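Hello again, I could really use a second opinion on something today. For a while now I've been wondering how a particular protein folds. Please have a think about how the structure follows from the sequence. Here's the protein in full, and shout if anything looks odd to you:

***
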Amino acid sequence: MCGNHEWKKLIMVQHWPVTVCEEVKNDCRDPPDYWTIHGLWPDKSEECNRSWHFNLEEIKDLLGEMKQYWPDVIHSSPNRTQFWRHEWEKHGTCAAQVAALSSQKKYFGKGLALYKQLDLNSKLQKLGIRPSINYYHIEDIKDALANVYGVIPKIQCLPPEQGEEVQTIGQIELCITKEDQQLRNCTTLGEPPSSLQEVWPVDVAAADRGLSVCKDGPVFYPPPKKTKH
């Protein structure tokens, strides 16, 4: 394996669909009102095997859960698979170095299993952290999640638009050990934090505001917008 394809940890990335739609401003319609999976990413490694193409047949047994928990939030069509293809070819082909993730079914299946195990939606609800027109303090959210999971999460926000003052919560990352896929801190003493970032595979030009690590201070956790039919 090439040196630039070595990685040390996995990052389980979940995002808030309402913020995703605000970020890209594409054809999002009625985004889910619960946190969904963005991806399961090895740090410092991308596109490890460009000849290992995505095959929908290999995950056909997972499609019901994939559409519910790992949806393509940006596009309204429920049959789109471009997002999953992108996640597999960019991240899954690197995660496959580990036996537990060594096929498309194992990789996506592990992502779904971690999503259910971490149960972020319920954890936030129990902590009293719910979408609201009132603001939270980012440190309160981070501390509450750290107490629940026993590790420090990385929280990313959408910076305020011109004329706004408050950042918007968009993504929560929890780090996982490479060997046995258990929770771990995202950084260890002396290890630089991962700078892994991802924009959506399409609509890059539309994403004029990108997610970045939340700054200290107030944060908006936006409720779903009521759409008129």
User: Anything to note?
Assistant: Confidence is low (pLDDT under 50) at residues 199-208. Residues 104-118 form the longest helix (15 residues). The helical segments are 17-24, 63-69, 82-95, 104-118, 120-126, 138-149. The domain at 3-220 is CATH 3.90.730.10 (Ribonuclease Rh; Chain A).
